[in-house]
Amino acid sequence: MAVKLRLQRHGKKGKPFYWIVAADARSKRDGKYLEKLGSYNPNVNPAIIELNIDGAVKWLQDGAQPTDTARAILSYKGVMLKNHLAGGVRKGALTEEEAEKKFQAWLDEKAGKVDAKKDGLAKEDAEARAKALEAEKAANEARIAALAPIVEEVTEEVSEEATAETTAEVAEDTATEEVKATNEEE
Predict the structure, then answer these.
(1) Could you list the residue range(s) of the whole structural domain that residue 164 is in?
(2) Are residues 132 and 88 both part of a single domain?
(3) pLDDT tens-digit series, residues 71-82
(4) What is the pLDDT, as a whole number, of residue 93?
């Protein structure tokens, strides 16, 4: 039985989510599998990969062949390096401690690169938001400047009408007072 390390698709349309599995090469893409080794979520940047490294190395040493995409993911997480180092330990070129030290150094370097990418993406996002805010402020100022003459005209008309109404009210009040005064005299 030929075993493949491959991706098994899950998720919904347009939002894929994959399981990394060891499966018989003859089984369907989303069919039966022998062991689930991890998951891969390409919907975020950087992609989230959870993987049982030791389980994947065991399957590789037992002769499982990864597909191209699975090989890229395994290489990204260091499974291929760990398998290579395990081969060196079996041949006597390295000790177990040396191999583990090399693998841990590689993991630390890889984690630094991933953190740098996350920081770069966060910085780019913050800069993009700042630029969008500045552009929105400029557009609002331009809109306000374009509406300023119209607002001034309306304000002048309203103040002229208010003055006319106030004058009419004062004249009416004066006339009413005069009528009351004449009524009181009679």
Answers:
(1) 120-186
(2) no
(3) 999 999 988 988
(4) 84
